[in-house]
Every structure is written in structure tokens, then in C-alpha cells.
Amino acid sequence: MFIPLLETIVIPRCYKPSGFNHVSAELHHFCDASQSGYGQCSCVRLVNADGQVHCSLVIGKSRVTPAKSVTIPRLELTAATVSVRISRMLEREMQYENLTSTYWTDSKAVLGYINNEARRFHTYVANRVQLIRDSSDTAAWNYIESETNPADDASRGLDCSSVVSQHRWFDGPSFLWKSRDHWPSQSALEPLSQCDPEVKKRVTVCVIHTVASVSKTVDKLLSYRSSWYKLKRNVAWILVVIKQLYQIVKRLQLGDMNEKLTVDELLAAEVAILRYIQRHEFRDELVALRAQRNVSKSSSIYRLSPVLTDELLCIEGRLRNFDLPATIKHQIILPKKHHVTTLIIQHYHQQSCRAGKEFVLSLVREKYRIICRRQTVRRVLKQCVTCQRCHGQPVVQKMADLPRQRVTADKPPFSSTGVDFFGTFLVS
Asked: Phi and psi of 189, rounded to 5°?
């Protein structure tokens, strides 16, 4: 019975009447929601040089509510996201210069969500609020009473008998036809309460001990690299960044950040790594020495007479009165079963061109004192893949296995190639 009434509704095809030369164009988006559905409508407001105003409907959308129960604030927020998407589409498609968008809603909860800066929301609300804030200006959102909101017709529906050609759905609300002085006044929004169902509740956490988690992260970092030099570089860069962040927090003047690490920065990284290892492997010994007490006799480093030098455990040694470098007289104590200890031994093993146990041990002892050093060096060198590949294939054969050659003045016992090879090896 209502279908014949649709013949009486006449909608102009053009947004503006003939001869209306506008100088400014604005888009006004209205959104609303109810238990039955939610929707929005967008009107274009044109103003000519004489100050005359003309408004007309551009587009409108309405949708039924989901079958799953959803609260009204969430439906209102969903309608607001539809308005934002429609606004982006119209701004892209309509060929008006300097087209601005203004948004209207009759939900103060939605305005509170959009203008919120202090609270955190649940995922449903947080995602839609983020979309709205990314695609629109928060200052462009305004409050409107439900009685004057044309989007209320989209959420609740209309009978054809009540719709005429001069309806607010087609022409926009009456205040748009007037100057801005007659638009709805905007009052200050109240801050969101922590009791709002969409606000995440604050959970008070009492941290008892955090060393375990931090230690786990640092241990993962130390075991990540298979090279002592690369590990020092990684830690050095971390310390450089920490120093820069500290200066930013304290509002100090930032120093120049070099593209390459300096020797001092690498040494600082090495000291930081060694301090961390000793702090976890020799905790009781450090506590005793800091309290100026003797190390327990049950300690694995008791016989080394450890002392603290720059917060590092070093051996006191019988060479303290000799005129030698401090690193040789006071060697840094290292545990025998730590990944960093293995990296240091591998580092000297590679530097010595895969030398044997005694030579590598002599290089290590110039700076470090490893507990059970001989067994530790033997174990690390036994795991060297390069040495395992070369095992059983000596470079120089035994003299008895060499073919006998007659030595003459014209022909040396070794070829020139062999002499060049050994000479190059010794020089390198």
C-alpha cells in the first residue's frame, strides 16, 4: 500500500539549483544507531557569493544490527566509521575545490572515545577509534541532538506516508541552511571514566624480581654470535645507543654518533661483557670482596687470591712487583664452561693460524686466567672443525717419505715453489 506513495517523491538530479554559483562547498556527515540498525547520511552545503545557502543529500547508507548482541555505544561507533569511509570516498570523487568535511553524532560516548588521550580500549573499540583518528580530524567531530539528526531516520526507518520531497533526509537539518551562529553549540566533553565498559581496567602488578628475565635476554645475546670480535661489536653498538638515549632523557647535548666504532668503545664493550659473566658466575666471591672479606675456601678461585680491579675479578699473582703490563700481572678470571670463554679461546686459536694447545694457552694467559685452563683449551681445540678436516693430512711429509734426490750445485733439494710457499707462510 506504500509503494504508490513513492511516486509523489521528487528528488532533483543536480546538487545545486540552476544559476547557483557557489564559492565554498562543505560535506556534513551524520551518523546514528539503534537496536534495529545503524546508518549515516552525507549532505553537501554550498554557499554563493551573496551568502545564500543550499543543501542536498549526496549519499546515505543504512544497515541492520548484527544478529549477535552489540551494545549501543559500539553500534554508534560503527556508524561513525561508516561516515569516515564515505567521507574519504566523496572527497576523492567529488570535483569541488577546497572541500571540507564535518561530522555529527548524537552519542557523547563516541565523542569521548574519539577525543580520548589517556585511556586504553578493548580491541573492538580501539580498532575503530584508530581508523577514525587516522582518517579524520578530531576537531571536526561535533555533537547534535537526536531530534535534529537526519541519520536517526536511517537507524529507525521511515514510513513512505511521512516522507515528502522537502524532508530533512533530502535537504539536511534546518540549521545547515543558516549561518554558523545558529549551529548547535558545543560544550566541553567530560573525560572518560575508568568504569566505562569499553575501557581496559588497570591491573596493578607488583614486580618482585626481574633479574631472571633480563639475564635470559642477555644470555641469549651473548650466545647469538660465534665470534668474539662480532660479539664485542654488537655490545658496543648497544652501549652507544644507550648512551644517546640517556642524553636525550636527561636533555643533555648529544654527541656525534660515528659510523664506525672506536677502540675505546670496543674496550668498554669487552669490560661490560666480562663484568656480566663474573657477576653471574662468581656472585658470592664478588659480594665477599666488596664487603672486604676473604673469599670462601670452598670457592673455585680461592687459590688464585682474587682481587677487584675496576669491578673485575683478577688474580693478585706473584708478579705484582714485576715491571710488566697490568693485564699480564692481574689476569681477568673467567669460568671454564661459558660460551664467551669458548669464543675467546677460538679467537686466539684463529689468530695463531690454528696453532696447538700450548701456544694458544700462552696467548690466552697474557690477559685471562681460565679455571682449569688446560682442559678447557683442549676441549675447545678438539671441537675445531678446520683442525678436524686437516687431521691426518699433514702439510709437510716426513723426510723418510720424500723421494731421494741427488743434491747438486745446479739443483736444490726443494723446488722454488716449495721455498716460496714456506717463505710466504713464515712471513704471514
From this structure: -80, 140
